Amino acid sequence: MDTIGKLGLLTEQMDLEPAEEHTTSRPSCYTPSNPFGAPSMTPKPLTREKDVYVHSAQLPNGKQIKLLKTLLTSACERDCFYCPFRAGRDFRRATFKPDEFARVFMDLNHRNIAEGTFLSSGIAGGGVFTQDKLIDTAEIMRNKYGFRGYIHLKIMPGAQKEQVFRAMQLADRVSINLEAPNTERLAMLAPHKVFIEELFRPLKWVEEIRQSQPAYKGWNGRWPSTVTQFVAGGADESDLELLTTTSWLMKNVRLKRAYFSAFNPIPDTPLENKPAVDPLREHRLYQASFLLRDYGFDLEEMPFANDGNLPLPTDPKLAWAQLNLSEHPVEINRAEKRELLRIPGIGPKGAEAILQARRTNQLRDLSSLRKLGVIAERAAPYVLLNGKRASLQLSMF
Q: In the predicted model, is pLDDT for residue 318 greater than 90?
């Protein structure tokens, strides 16, 4: 199989693993067709037509980039019940050697097809051996080809602390997939993964390194951010379980973000007959995690139902407001930032804009809020303006 054929196989199913903040739900496809001359240290151009999936992504700093999400190998010795790459499943696999992947990526980068990469891998030869291959690949990209763009490196189950440290010296972001919120749930998804020792501990190592080592030792003079992923609904866990673990990680190891992937059955896996999870559940989990991270909400304030799940028909912030603010609206002209952030239609930027505007003028009507970036129609039932309920004029068109 040629290089592009490998890359096509290794990128085509990477929608199953979220990475970065996607701005589109589907990846764009690049089909190379014309060879170009390559400068020194640049690999040979790709000449055979084959789809390469490049995702539109948003980095933590808000910059939009074209992100190549791929595996180093789709061969895997683990038999996770939900995974298309599980050992023993009959499908065509592919593997890149570190230098081979570095060359193909740099070709795409020089053509402005891919600006950064999210590099993961199946586990072949153990987690330590596989982690070495990922690190080798990043070292070749950084040191041999001089790539200074975005790299997100996956930390493999069972990786050693020294490997985690080295990955943090090469990457802008590192991630360890927990998949499930605790030991009991993980056993239902991945019976040969060990929750604490293989997955949870490396997340703590990342924070220990950030706390104990000077930032100049990290890539570009700073330590990478950390994210994780959960398979929502794969182990019949509740939203409360998922968000309890997420909240702890955000508070204790500075997790930047949790990704949630709604379970969807894969043919020829042990869970192929398990019903798919409503994608709306994934959306609600994201909304709730942002409330915990950016809006000052505590886990105890999430509007969980008796079964520990969030209501699907209503977003969690609106559900909280309906219970707590309908009879006790917030006075916009006196509220602190924390109170403003709890009002539907007001985000962090809107809250700051309100605080700034109040220094010179009283806010008297919804039109004033609209000018500050507030979604006034959502906020209206839950606010007071100079002691009066906001009057919302409905549009006839």
A: yes
